[in-house]
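Honest question from a wet-lab person: if I give you the sequences of every part of a complex, can you actually get the arrangement of the whole thing, not just the pieces? Trying it with mine:
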Amino acid sequence: MVQKPGEQKSGDMVQGTLEMLILKTLALEPMHGYGVALRIEQVSQGVFRVNPGSLLPALARMERAGHVKSEWRSTENNRRAKYYLLTPRGRKALKDETNAWDRQTAAISRILEA
Amino acid sequence: MGLIGNIRAGMRALLGRARVEREMDEELRGFLDASSEDKRRAGMTPEDAAYAARVEMGSANAVKHRIRSAGWEMAIENLWQDLRYSVRMLAKSPVFTLVAVLSLALGIGANTAIFSLMNVVMLRTLPVKDPGQLVLFGNGRAAGSTSSLPNQSWQLFSYPFYRSFSQKSQVFSGVTAIDSIEFATHGALAGEGHEMLHASLVSGTYFPVLGVNPWRGRLLTEADDQTPGSGAVAVASYSWWQRHGSDPAAVGKTIHIEGTDYTIAGIAPPGFFGISVGELPDLWIPLSMEKEISPGWNGLSDKWFQSLYVVARLKPGVTVEQASANTNLVFQQFLRSEYLGPSPAQKDLADVAHAQIELNPAARGLSRLRRQFTLPLEILITIASLVLLIACANLANLLLARGAARSREFGLRMAIGASRSRVVRQLLTESFVLALLGAALGVAASWRAGHLLLTMAISSPEPAGMNVSPDLRVLAFTLSLTILTALLFGVTPALRAAQLDLTASLRQGRGIASPQSRISLARGLIVAQIALSLVLLAAASLFLRSLVNLTRVDTGFNKQNVLVLNLDEYSAGLPLDARLVNLQQQIEDRVQAVPGVEAASFSMFTFNQGEWSDDVTVQGVPRTPENSQDVLHNVVGKGFFSTMSLPILAGRGFNATDKIDSPKVAVINQTMAQRFFPDSSPIGHRFGFGDDPSHSGDIEIVGVVKNAKYVTLQESSEAAAYFPYAQRVQYFGNFEVRSSSDATLMIPAVRRAIAEVNPNIPVNSVSTLSEQVDESTANQRLIARLSAFFGLLAAFLVCIGIYGLLSYAVARRTSEIGVRMALGAKRSNVLWLILREILVLVAIGVVIGVPVALEGNHLVVKLLYGLSPADPGSLLAAVAMLVAIALLAGYLPARKASLVEPTVALRCE
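Yes, you can. This is the full assembly:
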């Protein structure tokens, strides 16, 4: 799903990570699909590059789960694009997933450093 | 978007497919555009940028597919696709589909029909309020009246007991009493003719306790059931009301029954039949009218006249145990105060030490049918489910063969990207389509078959008020059965088919993972089918032989050419005295004078109509346990013995000298003669009813008649005594006529003769004595017929299975057979080679099936007559039949194998 260029094989992330990253990205402002992909790539400084084959189905899943909703808007250069917005339920999911993630990474670090 | 939103989005995707597709395309294009624009800005040429963006995305169709998969509607679309494909595939092989659907329809239909009967007879609760709160006092097996105080669980109760009990008991919210006999009587609605009526006498609490609401008018209340003779009202059943044209003005009309006018107070709701499954009264009448409905009965004030069932409704929260404790406390007090007196003798106390009331759940009502048919129905549903199992094994085999034939198709589908699970799902869908088609057909057939079974099983008396059309429970049963069936026969072949060696199957067009294991699986299925059908055939031949034994039983009487008329003498309006006897003798004489009639007589019983029995004390013969047993009694006319062709062996039969004022006489049968007078002639000895040794012995034995069967064909030789009706005046229902030729041709002449004597006596029904004998074995007949039918069906399915397996095996071994023949094998060798295989399978099946059959047959021992459940003849017959079937089914493929031309066979590989 999420690939790290150069280290193709080591990039298998924990299940659901992509959705957490998308939630976090959309928490700032509504965005269209490409905007989400671009933002994740930029913020991760190119470590994660999300391809549309993973991103768009993930967004569709999240829409069905009620975490995001979508609407058609004009982009900055006057094209029509499907924008995704975080719903209150999505906001809560982000909080829950972030907490869970923090717990897990802390635990993993403790194990690795022990 | 919650659940509702999800569903709405799914529906939108399903219905507005074009719009959703357009939006998806637009989003993807937007993504590509934005991406390539970015790359251009980063310095790529427009062509490179567009290309790179497309590479990143991959196949647009794949992405769209994954987006679509996010919603549930995808599953529906797949299902729809699978369904359409299944129907196409099934339509392509109509013979296979026909065989599959028909065998499933038979299997599922038979199970549904039998289950719907079980549902009505055994499972369904009464259509009343909270049936779970109802309890019955006793087990409801007795009917009639008794004057004894049983020193055990009581079954029948007196009206005074019901009255006093309902006042004293604290655990019930209501108590009701119902006469244990449904009275057959005649009546006429104001302005209409006489009709036969079934009346149920009930206490005023009956409808309130059951919690039933009127359809029209009102139902009976306590006020209707007060002083004797005061409640001349009736509640009619819905079906009686329908028979009378659903007359809106029926309520308030009067109906004249045997001298009393009853006002119709109301109509009971549709579907309500009371508490006895299989009986449907036309009228419910208050018990206060007992004497009017049944003139010799005096139960309203007589505590010794015990003829009622008592049903009570538990108060909420009261358990059956608590209720039972309280009930028996009140019962003991009643016994002491009413029957034993204030200071009972020690002996009297001991006589009722074990007297008690057993509370039984009455949610499903009581039913003669349930007692009679529970075991047969359980046996039949077992048989039917075994047939269904065989059909499943058969179908699994057919599907395996089909899977082998279709392996190229599966290979192709997987090669172009279908997952294994998708192929399995597709094949399972096909199985479900087959099963559902079979079930639909089966349910449609069982609709009819349920009624047929009911009338086949219970031909007389006609069951009433029973609705065997499938209800929700039956449909749920059938649906689960269908799903189970589809899984049973569909899963293994589907999994097998998906285990393909792709390249091999595509290259050869028919290779499958391991043909050897397919064959051994198929063989296993055939062995299972053979074993199961052996069990069925063995059971069928047991039941058939048992039925043959029953039909060969010597009834003692000659059942040929005898009419049995059911008539209602009461309508003649004569009292119980010499005038009635006169009328009866006139009818007998007049009918006997009809040309072709040899003899005619009234009687209390003919055969299989119940019994009146009592113990007797013979003067001068000390009582022993043996001669204290009950003797069956019958009251007959003087022509009875010649009508039944029962020869008088000693002394005389009845004649005109036996009058009401002449000494009382009796004719006894051989068994009674032997029991009381093993060494001497009984003629001239005297006896009386009951066990009092100082009995007057008012009845003189004047003759001995040949033994006969009285209540059932299975009974051993019973002692019996006959009394002339001239000395025991009563109304009769039975009138028998023996003719010299076909009895049914005499019916019009006999009816005319009766009408000539008295036109007011209606003839309710006419049957023949041999029909009565046949009806007494209705149960055995039903089981024998159905088990034979199912046995043959099973055998036929096995036939198909064996034929299919061998055809496949022969096709695979064509080249091997060619080599054998080229090397000098004869045609007979080849024939044997193939047939040997099937004989081995049959042998294994028999070895497995015989112990199962022996074990299973023990369960049906109660229904067998003159046979041991391990009857070797029946088992041998079943085995022989199976071998014959197997050889028959195997012969065609084997012959085909033996006709293989070696040159052709060797060239074809």
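Two things worth pointing out. The radius of gyration of chain A is 15 Å. Chain A is about 55% helix and 20% strand.
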